[in-house]
Amino acid sequence: MTSVAPMRALPQRGSHRLSLAAVFSASFGVGLVIGFQPPLIAFVLERGGASSVEIGAVNSISTLAVILCGPFFPGAIRRLGLRRATALGMLVSMAMLLVMPLVPDFQGWLPLRFVTGCALGLEWIASEIWLNRLSSDERRGTVMGTYATVFAAGVMAGPLLLQVTGTSGWRPFGVGALSLALTALPLLAARDPPAAAADSGDRRRWLRIARAAPIVMLAAVIAGVVESAYVALLPVFALLRGLDEHASLRLVTVFLAGNVLLQVPIGRLGDRLGRQRVLALCAVVCVVGPLLLSATLGTPWLVWPLLLLWGGTMYGFYTQGIAMLGERYPHAELADANTVFVIVYCTGGIAGPLLGGMAMDYWTPNGLLVFLSIAPLLLAVGWPQRGRSIAS
Length: 392
Known about the structure:
Blueprint (H helix, E strand, L loop, with lengths): L3 H44 L4 H18 L3 H8 L1 H18 L6 H29 L5 H26 L5 H14 L20 H8 L1 H27 L4 H29 L1 H22 L3 H29 L2 H32 L4 H8 L18
Helix pairs in contact: 1-2, 1-5, 1-6, 1-7, 2-5, 2-13, 3-4, 4-5, 4-7, 5-12, 5-13, 6-10, 6-12, 9-10, 9-12, 9-13, 10-11, 10-12, 11-12, 11-14, 12-13, 13-14
């Protein structure tokens, strides 16, 4: 009788690992498309005579789509299950990639990118719920750190793939769709976790979900604000400080590399020391980082380690926040909680470049650094409520 439990545990562990591998593979593929599609869109539309505003609108409408479609994601995930919801999001995204060469203009791509945003949002939220349900509290930070690393590696690989495929004709779209299909294949071998109990779907409780975990939601909005403001405006800041275009873009690349290198160590640290404590440490680094950037900007051996550390800890807001969702919310509420988190993050992503640009215009160019330093201090608003339970 004592040998039965181990024999049953082996297939369960194998299924668990297959599911993790499938979600990580899908996340890499989605990251690849997110890194691949915006520059491809920019190049094709620019050749077609589109204005900068039109190019920006086509690229940004996918984020708006996640926000607008957010209320429908939890119900869709409950009906489809996590595996099918993840697969459906990827299949729709593939279809949109293949349709785009047929209508390579602003009017045609605007609705296609909106649908792509809805599809990727469904995959995004379903994947994170799936990972949280596969993770124990003792390893949740490590799993989420691995997820963030894999996703970030996909985003960084996107522009590299574009250099291989070029930006003309069907080839880049076909290769992008094929890459997404290949990374979705492991989903065929994965198994859905047991379904969580359904709830009433009352959207009024979204406010209660957000109020129950203010630190988590603040982490989401700060991650969105700082990430988007940095990526959009740091090259402009560097140009105003006298760097050339190549040196300015390298600053963004090094910053993004911090996400790839540091998320697993940050996740493991969160598992050992507590996620809220690590989140506070990330906030301290993100307050100090911008203040040091100006003094180190002209010295690569100083500024690059600073950007790696700052970039990794800034993305730690997101990964630690997602891990805290899994701790604080039961499975029946996790779809709604994750959706609220992603919507708050995307809202921050839309507001970040606007607010950072206003700060830079007010005090050129150092207003951007002041803004990036002040934003993480908002976490202090949540500390007095850190002990609240979700039932309050």
